[in-house]
Amino acid sequence: xxxxANEPKSRYLQYLEIVTGPLEDKRRYRQYxxxxxxxxxxxxxxxxxxxxxxxxxxxxxxxxxxxxxxxLAELFEQSVADGTPVRDIFGxxxxxxxxxxxxNYPVGQWRAKERNRFTSAIDRAAGEDPARxxxxx
Length: 137
Description:
Pfam families: DUF1048 (PF06304). This protein has 137 residues and is mainly alpha-helical.
């Protein structure tokens, strides 16, 4: 039902993507989930927990999120191949690991917008010019 790369999308697919988001991202997500499903149980449990955390608190959306999840699958697949224990992947503080992991990916549009809105509100409340912080004045 998806068109080839050079083929224009039908009007139906265009409307469907407006409602559901890009179909390519959905295909990539299904491939990611299939990769995670192939991991040994303890790695799969850790990957599922990390995915849940990223879904709730991750900085990316859309294609940015998919790049992050694909890299996550690759990290776990390589760790399995190398025999790296789960604890060695995450270290003593899993939150510190995930913060370092997500720092490599662009901030999602909605999250960046809300961070900027929040920061600007605090600047205004403190009697400061939000534009000064950004170096635009």
